[in-house]
Amino acid sequence: MHIYGTPVLGTRDNIPEIVKKQRVDEVMIAMPTAPGKAIRAIKSICETARVPYKTVPGVYELIDGTVSVNQLREVQIEDLLRRDTVPLGSAGAVYLHNAVVMVTGAGGSIGAELCRQVAAQRPRCLILLDQGESAVYHIDLELRSRFPHVELVPVVADIRDLGRVERVIGRYDPEIIFHAAAYKHVPLMELNPEEVVLNNIQGTRNLLQAAERGDVERFVLISTDKAVDPSNFMGASKRVVELLVQDAAQRSGRSFVAVRFGNVLGSEGSVVPLFKRQIAAGGPVTVTHPEMTRYFMTIPEAVQLVIQAAMLGQGGEIFVLGMGEPVKIVDLARDLITLSGLEPDRDVEIVFTGLRPGEKLAEALFNAAESYTLTCLLYTSDAADEEDSV
Q1: N or C: which end of the chain has fewer CB within 10 A?
Q2: Alpha helices, DSSP H, located in 120-191
Q3: DSSP letter at 87?
Q4: What percent of the chain has pLDDT over 70?
């Protein structure tokens, strides 16, 4: 076939012979919407053929001025996963329709995406709670534009204030609470342990107490894999609140559950935005340790896990997404450099800085006392028989 008179010489598998026959100097990968798996496959073929390659932006990005022709396209988060995304879907989210839903931490990256996906299910009322005035303002403004049919209640409140939490729940009577408000930065919280206890533990305890008194039907805590055999204050605080949720579920008989996240790619304060800034500055890219690994998930995966957990939970379960094998942070850095059209250690240096306070080399999804079973698309950990359960 021909495209505007130019013959198509073959598929990606023909690149080595075409490069040799046509004396190709450079390969342009003009596939801005292709998944990372496809891009890496072509990259591998180009390396085998010993030909330089670059990715180029999409035409729509050139037209609207987002990038210029001499810029590389923005690397998509999914490019870095090293696995296919988990298609959880929204079929189980019917319980949100016409419900009164409250999201804490509504202005954060996870909380905001959770608000968007909840709003898409047409709840009767969506309560946006966050202690940050600007955070509440921006998510409220966005949702009013995108979902004019949904009643929105922006609430500036601190979950550490029990009286305020009780008044909010008493006034709006939510049926479902998604609890995303938390301090999450491990090294920072090592320096501020009192704050992580007050915010993560006392704040969650306040919400659970008010939720029980207010007859909230479903409560979903967002936890972390750092709660498994924790080595830092942040992880320990999340393990404590997992147990508090299980205690409340057992006491009330309601669907109070938790979800454990891996590292969420692209969330506020995550490693990818940091690496992007470092690459844009010419390096170096800083990695703590060459053997450090983490489980990774995307923001949409994380939010769908929360929504599905609320639907599947009977009370006391801890849900975990099947995230495949853990990924080395240094491999993530190399992928991001490569997918930006550069070469690691030649164009951008990688420097190892050493483990920070409270960090582990590797995380786990379950502790030794937990047993887990496979649900339809999720793993659920049942720690009801765990010795340290409340």
Answers
A1: N
A2: 133-146, 162-172, 186-191
A3: -
A4: 86
In residues, how long is the chain? 390
H or E stretch at 70: none
Residue 248's identity, in one-letter code, is A
User: 134-141: which pairs have CB atoms within 8 A and are 24 or more residues apart?
Assistant: 134/107, 135/106, 135/107, 135/108, 136/106, 136/107, 138/107, 139/106, 139/107, 139/111, 139/112, 139/115
Q: What is the pLDDT of residues 103-142, one digit of tens each?
A: 999 999 899 999 999 999 999 999 999 999 999 999 999 9
CB atoms within 10 A of CB 143: 21
Half-sphere exposure of 288 (CA within 13 A, CB side): 16
Which tokens go with 161?
């204030």
With a CB cutoff of 8 Å and minimum separation 6, the contacts of 188 are none
Q: Tell me, what's the pLDDT at 239?
A: 96
Q: In whole angstroms, give the CA distance from residue 289 to residue 302.
A: 26
CA distance 377 to 86: 8
d(CA 218, CA 175): 6
Cα 359 off chain centre by: 19
Is residue 63's pLDDT more than 70?
A: no
Question: Does residue 353 sit in helix, strand or coil?
Answer: coil
- Which residues touch 290 (CB under 8 Å, ≥6 apart)? 328, 330, 352
* Closest listed residue to residue 228, CA positions, set 124, 363, 388, 58: 363
* Cα–Cα dist 156/133, whole Å: 6
45-62 mean pLDDT: 74
Nearest to 143 by CA among 124, 118, 108: 118
- Write out the catalytic residue numbers: 226
Query: How do the residues of the chain divide into helix, strand and coil, expressed in percent and rounded to 5?
Result: 40, 20, 40
DSSP secondary-structure letter at 67? S
Would you list the DSSP string of 347-358?
TB-EEE--PPTT
Name residue 132's beta-bridge partners: none
CA–CA dist 50, 47 (Å, integer)? 5
CB 174 within 8 A of CB 168: no
Considering only 235-244, 283-292, 338-347, which range has the smallest mean pLDDT? 338-347
Would you say 268 and 109 are in contact if contact means Cβ atoms under 8 Å apart? yes
Q: Across residues 267-285, what is the average pLDDT?
A: 84
